Amino acid sequence: MTEASRGCTTFMIVGAGGHGREVASYVRSLERSEGGVSLLGFVDDRAEGIVAGVPVISTIDELGRVLESLPAATYTYITAVGNNAVRRSVVDRLTSLGIEKLQAGTLCHPSVTMGEGVEIDEGTCVAPGAILTTDLHIGRHCIVNVSASVSHDSIIGDYCNLNPGVRICGAVRIGADCFIGAGATVINGVSIGEGSIIGAGAVVVRDIPPHVTAVGVPARVIKHHG
Question: Which domains, and CATH codes, for the chain?
């Protein structure tokens, strides 16, 4: 279990956009269902004031100064940024600040179904209705969005985004920084190379190389990135 699941965490959400508002609702659900979890506010370089009833407490660069004035020994952040490259950049910025009171957390909505042997690394958010079956690994700072599922013996690399309704079947390997579009399906045993994009509704029936875009049923490569 993560610290968040045990109920002893003060969360900050980095990013006050649409996904940030969703993540705020997940934290509130944890507050109601488990107790001991609280939401301090948003961290955002552009937004100010109150967003969806939650205060924007700081920009990224000012966060160390703000946290030093607050009493808790540690604060936990979740990045609410859908773009994988931007999310990675945000985490790098936060890490470079060297704030001792700041740590990346893991957030799982109370409605998530999770079996035995599921490993979820720091910074990952698992949204309502997601299913993680058994003996699988989700990397750092991933998004497993609403009603997505990941089946047995699969490995999801760091900074991946599994959009709503994605279905990852058994023994799938997905490299870091992949974006799997809404409603896509990846069949058993398939590998997707790092940095690749799978279009919404695609069905991946064979291995996909790194740094490409693949769409359709069955999915085919339509673009190479750089």
Answer: 3-106 (3.40.50.20), 111-217 (2.160.10.10)
Question: What's the token pair of residue 196?
Answer: 């690749």
Residue pLDDT, tens place only, 116-160: 999 999 999 999 999 999 999 999 999 999 999 999 999 999 999
The C-alpha atoms of residue 14 and residue 204 are separated, in whole angstroms, by 32
Which of the four pLDDT bands, split at 50, 70 and 90, describes residue 187? Answer: very high
- In the block, residue with structure tokens 């956009």: 17
Q: How many CA atoms lie within 13 A of 137 on its CB side?
A: 10
Instruction: Please state whether 29 falls in left (phi above 0), alpha (psi between -120 and 50) or beta.
Output: alpha
CA dist 140 → 1, 37, 89 (Å):
15, 21, 13
Catalytic residues: 152
In 90-130, DSSP assigns E strands to 102-104, 107-108, 113-114, 118-120, 125-126
